[in-house]
Amino acid sequence: MAQGYRQGADTGLDLDAWRRVVDGFHEAVVVLDPDGVVRLVNPLATVLFPEARPGSPLPEVDQGRRQDLGGGWVAWYRGVEDYLEEAARRLAPLTDRADALRSVVELAPAEHTVVVLPGLRGRLEWWRRTPAGDVAVARTTRQVADTADGFTAVLDRLVEHAELTDLGEGPWGTSGVGVAVPLTEGGALVCFGGAWNVDLLKRFAARAAAAVEASTRFTEQERTVEALRTNLLPATLPDVPGARLARVYEPAHRRVLLGGDFYDVHPREDGSAAFVLGDVAGNGLEAAVHSGRVRQSLHTLLVVEQRPAQLLQLLNTALRAAGSRLFTTLVVGTMMPVQAGGLRLTLAAGGHPAPLVLRGDGRVDEVAVHGGIVGVLPEVRFHQTTVTLAPGETLLLYSDGLTEARKHGDRHELFGDVRLKAALGDCAGLPAEAVAEHLRHVVFDWLGAAEHDDLTLLVLQAAP
Q1: Residue among 396, 395, 398, 397 nearest 462 (CA)
Q2: Which one of 260, 298, 301, 343 is most buried, by most CB atoms within 10 A?
Q3: Phi, psi of 15 (to 5 degrees)
Q4: What is the pTM of this model?
Q5: 3 state SS of 211
Q6: Strand 356-358 and strand 364-366: pairing?
Q7: SS3 assignment, position 140
Q8: What is the pLDDT of residues 331-367, one digit of tens each?
Q9: Which region holds residue 249: left if phi is over 0, alpha if psi is between -120 and 50, else beta?
Q10: Residues 6+ apart with CB under 8 A from 331
């Protein structure tokens, strides 16, 4: 490469002639005039020297090699292996399919590159640069299985100079002669403009294919998780006559927002509502899937049974029949507005922390309701009790993620029942949303930045 530059260095550079030379090099080349202004940038250099802009100074070059051309002219260059390593480095961390395909088009060692891939429902996708310089995707508007088969046949032959008419119709965005190399199964990297090194294109395409396939798998996994998450996440709290509702839902796995805790409120046509807050053993996706099963079972059973204790009995039988291996603790109940004001609540519990009632004078009472864990034992008893809330009074249901929250700086000290009751007592006179936010604030101040278990609470308040 350097010897080719010296041949014209003594008498200055014929830029047109040198452009034709450096465009065909298998190295990234940037040529600067004596004032340090970029005059030539070959296709590889647009990738390896992205800061190089013709007509502008070159701010800084890293990991490049310098060649003096004489008369103050200078060339910076990097080799093919440098280019391939740089391309692989940029592509490797991409987990979104669209981002990976855009980067493949941007990094490809050609003046004009189109990525063609099989799309959904027999269609083709075409990724290329737009006149504005960004990368966009176009898709055929109808099934083109025959076209796709024909395109694959062309790739199998892999002529080094394939006419566009051989490649089939599509939004190429250019004209002339191109070269096509396989990218992924049924897909191709098609390059136009310039003199190509087919071996280089194939080596780049192999790295690009690995990145596209990995990002496609990751994107599909993300879509699957999102579809599952949509069904597994607790629903928005409904409006219930005579009641104010609020909640805190903080799974241990914050990225996917799924865990073993769950809650639901089901209004009825008569103005009453059923409610539940539960905790499946463990956390993460397995616990979330099981909690979804419990929620769906409860929703179905509520059609035939509304008494809380009997509802838990049926749920225990149903989960055991389904082969449940994770035990569940929960509180279920019904609430009915009282004509004189307030709410009448009927509650039953299965192995769950006792609900708390915040009275109007700030007193906190524990609701004595007991029962065994659900979904494991064949013989288990459940009992129910009734509680009346005067206007403005509050019932709190919570998971043990609150009481077992570990103090930042001392992981042996738990938040505990006493602190929870004191924090709830401080909420006298506050509306339901403010109660939930206060408790959340208190417990996360206690936790600091430390990890925590699934943490959920449900506030049921009689409207004042």
Answers
A1: 395
A2: 260
A3: -60, -40
A4: 0.60
A5: helix
A6: antiparallel
A7: coil
A8: 999 999 998 899 999 999 999 999 999 999 999 999 9
A9: beta
A10: 276, 277, 278, 347, 348, 349, 350, 352, 355, 369, 397
